[in-house]
Amino acid sequence: MAGFDYSDDVMNHFMAPHNMGEIENPDGIGNVGNPKCGDVMRISLRIKDNVIEDIKFKTFGCVAAVATSSMLTDLVKGKSIEEALTITNKRVAEALGGLPAVKMHCSVLAEGGLQAAIEDYRKKQAEKK
Amino acid sequence: MGFIYLDHNATTPVRPEVTEAMLPYLGGMFYNPSSIYSPARAVRRAIDAAREKVAAAIGADPRRLYFTSGGTEADNMALFGAAYSMYVKDRRKIVISKIEHPAVLESARALEKRGFELALLPVDRNGIVDPVKAAEIIDDNTIIVSVMHANNEIGTIQPIKELAEIAHKHGALMHSDCVQSFGKILLNVKDLGVDMASFSAHKIYGPKGIGAFYVRQGLKLAPLQYGGHQEMRVRPGTENPAAIIGFGVAAELVNKDFESGVPARLAAMRDRLQELLIGRVPQTCLNGNTDRRVPNTLNISFAFVEGEAMSIALDRMGIGVATGSACSSGDLEPSHVIMSMGLKEEVAHGSLRFSLGLENKMEEIEKTAEAVTQVVERFRMMSPLYEDFVKSGTGGDICKQN
Predict the structure, then answer these.
(1) Which residue, A45, A69, B67, B94, is most buried by CB atoms nearer than 10 A?
(2) Stated pTM of the model
(3) Of B257, B288, B312, which residue sits at a domain end?
(4) How many domains in chain B?
(5) How far apart are the C-alpha atoms of B112 and B110, rounded to whole Å?
(6) Is residue A73 within 8 angstroms of chain B, CB to CB?
(7) How would residue A34 be classed by pLDDT, with cut points 50, 70 and 90?
(8) Mean pLDDT throughout B112-141?
C-alpha cells in the first residue's frame, strides 16, 4: 500500500524548504528528472576553492521530492566537492527520518541533481583551462 | 472553521438519520433474516423495505436489485458474469471506456488475460465517449459494453443511452457503473437502457461496504460466488442488515435532496470555485466538460506544479482534496482519466479534484479558493518548469497536446 505518513522532518522541509531558489551566474548547474514522471529538479552551485559555498534548488515534484531536495542542500553546503559526492540518496532519506517505501525513488532525484551540477562545474573548469 | 472536506467523490459523511436507522441492527435486531421466527422475519421485512427504497431511487424493479459489498463487487459481477455467461456464448470481446474506474478496468484486464479480447473506447478532449467512435468498435463479437454514467475524477456524464442502443443493435449487453452519478443527478436505469448497473451507498451519505447490482428482467448471469439462496443466489451469503437498511435510508433521502434543490446549490458553489480559481490563477486548465458534468465535481490542472505536493499543503491548511497525480498512487503515471483527454504530462500531474457535498458552505469555497491560489503560487516559485515557462515567454495552449 502507498503510505503517506511522512516524518516530521520531511513535513518541516516540505513546508519550509531550505535553500530554495537559484544562484545567479552559478559555477555549476544540474537538471535531472522528467516532467512525464512527475519530478524535475534543478540544482545550482557556487564553488570556491573546491568547497560548495552555496547551493540552491528548484523542484517540481511531490512532498518527498521537495523535502529530499531541501535536505540535500543542507547536507552539502560548506562541504568539499569530494565530500559532497559521497552523499547518497539513502543518506538523504535517513537524515529526514526515513521516507515511505513508495517514495524512495524521489531521493534518487536529489542525488542525481547534485552529481549533474558538479559534473557541469567540472566541465566548465576544464573548458577554462 | 473545522476541516473543509471537498472529497465527496471519495466518500461522504454518513447522515445521522442513516446511522440512527442502522443502530438497532447492530444491537438487539441481530437475527439472521433467513430464519423463520418472528424477530428474524422483522429483519427480513426491513431488508425488503430497504431494497424497495433503493430500487425506487434508481427506477428499478426491486426484484432485480441485489445487494453487494459495494460498487467494486457489482462491477466485477457485471463483467465476469457477462463474460462467463452462456447468454453470450461464442463472443470474445469486452468493450469499456478509457476512463473507467479501476473496478471495471481491472476486471476487463483480468478477462483479457484469460483469453477475452479487450477494446477501449476513447474520450474526447472534454472526457466524453463519442458514440460515433464507439459504433466503430462495438460489433457482433462484443459480449458487453461497460461505460460509467459519471466519471469519478472529472464528473463528466456519458451518453449511456446512445451507447446502450449501439450495444443492443449488436446483441451485446450494456453495463454502467452508476456509483458516481447516483445521488448527484436524476437517474433511471430503464431510461438509460442498461442491462446492468452498479451502485454504492457510501457515495450517497450511506455506510461503506454496501452496494447494489441491478440486472434487468430476463437476464441471467453466472454469479461470482456460490452459496445459499440469499439475494436470489445472484449474490449468496448472509446479508448485512444494518448496512442494507442504512443504504435504504440514504437512497430515500437522495430523492428528498433532489426535491429540495440540493444539486443546484452544490452547482452554484462548484461554479463559484471554478470561477475563482480559473480567474485568479493563470495557466490553469479545466478538466472535463462544463455542459455534461455532475453538479458537485470540479477538476482543475495547475500547470508546472505537482498535485500531491499541493494536496498535502492544502491538508496542512485544513482542506481535503484529491489529486490525479502519479505521486499519490505509487506508480509513475498520472491519472489515466486525465491522460486520456490528451493533457500534457506536466499539466496532468498538477490536477486537483474538488468534490462538494451536502455540508459544504459558500464561505468554505471562498477560503479554499484563497488557499489554493496561495499554494499554487508558492509551488510555482519552486518549480523549474515554471521558471522555464516564464523565461521562454511562449504563450499558446498549455493545457492540451497537439
Answers:
(1) A69
(2) 0.94
(3) B257
(4) 2
(5) 5
(6) no
(7) confident
(8) 96
Question: CB distance from A86 to chain B under 8 Å?
Answer: no
A17 touches chain B (CB under 8 A): yes
- Of B229, B257, B285, the one marking the end of a domain is B257
The answer to whether residue B396 is domain-embedded is no
The amino acid at B204: I
Which of A60, A63, A69 should we substitute to test contact with B (largest number of B Cβ atoms within 10 Å)? A60
Place of cell 491522460: B339
Q: What residues make up the domain containing B233?
A: 16-257
- Indicate whether B225 and B301 sit together in one domain: no
Angle of CA points A20, A22, A27, to nearest 5°: 130
**Nearest residue on chain B to A104, judged by CA atoms?**
B330
ipTM of the complex: 0.92
The answer to whether A2 contacts B384, with C-beta atoms less than 8 Å apart, is no
Per the listing, cell 540544482 goes with A43
Residue of B326, B382, B387 with shortest CB distance to A38:
B326
Contact of A18 with chain B, judged by CB distance below 8 Å, is answered with no
> pLDDT tens digits, residue range B222-259?
999 999 999 989 999 999 999 999 999 999 999 999 99
The CATH number given to whatever domain includes residue B126 is 3.40.640.10
| DSSP state letter for B158 | P
pLDDT, position A2: 45
Q: Which residues contact B283 (CB under 8 A, 6 or more apart)?
A: B302, B303, B304, B389, B398
